[in-house]
Amino acid sequence: MTEQEVRIGIVTVSDRASRGEYEDQGGPAIREWLQKALTTPWEPVTRIVPDEQAQIEAALRQLCDEERCCLVVTTGGTGPALRDVTPEATEAVCDKILDGFGEQMRAVSLKYVPTAILSRQIAGIRGRSLIINLPGKPSAIAECLDGIFAAVPYCLDLIEGPYIETDPAVIEAFRPKHAKKTGS
Fold first, then answer.
1. What are phi and psi of 24, to 5 degrees?
2. Per-residue pLDDT tens digits for 112-128
3. Is the dihedral of CA 24, 77, 29, 131 positive or negative?
4. What is the pTM of this model?
5. Domain parsing of the chain, residue ranges
6. C-alpha triplet 17, 79, 143: angle, nearest 5°
7. 13 DSSP 8-state letter
8. How sure is the predictor about 1, in pLDDT bands with cuts at 50, 70 and 90?
9. Tens digits of per-residue pLDDT, 10-56?
10. Where are the beta strands (DSSP E) in 68-166?
């Protein structure tokens, strides 16, 4: 892998999808959104894991530490159900939690459904990787990415990740005027 390659982890957290009983719709929805939004070439690294905290943590660690994904996006396991443990797994592997991502995703989702207040998605940093939890429903995935992704490229800059660019027709990345184009 060259230093310029951008790798993005996509993790579907679902008991049924991990057993092959249910077609994963969340992971493909994330990939489709990113394919439209990013103009920087990138490679997806996908995983499907059950709603088991240890397995979610292991997948996140592997994608960040071994696969060197600058961004890891999860789908599923963010609600209040007993088996929903994605936020706990994310918090366990992160060095820093970025509360603003979860706050903004809930604010965006509240425009569509009153049950958005039940959502517990979070985001955090592990080394030079940004991990973001998204809901499981494909339409909610797109709504949340539309609401937060403008901040993702600059966040990656700040943690010394690769410089990624977006298609302004889909989402315009925000960087302060003083920010320089760099990358690892």
1. -65, 120
2. 999 999 999 999 999 99
3. negative
4. 0.94
5. 6-158
6. 85
7. E
8. very low
9. 999 998 998 989 999 999 999 999 999 999 999 999 999 999 999 99
10. 71-75, 96-97, 123-126, 129-134
| Cβ-contact 148, 132 below 8 angstroms | yes
**In which residue are the tokens 């103009």 written?**
39
CATH superfamily name and code, 6-158: MoaB/Mog-like domain (3.40.980.10)
Q: Tell me if 134 sits within 8 A of 121, measured CB to CB.
A: yes
How many residues are recorded in the chain? Answer: 184
pLDDT at res. 182: 59
Residues 6+ apart with CB under 8 A from 131: 60, 64, 71, 72, 73, 74, 90, 93, 94, 123, 124, 125
- With 0-12 / 13-18 / 19 or more C-beta atoms within 10 angstroms meaning exposed / middle / buried, residue 104 is middle
The Cα-based distances of 112 to 23, 68, 99, 132 in angstroms read 25, 35, 21, 20
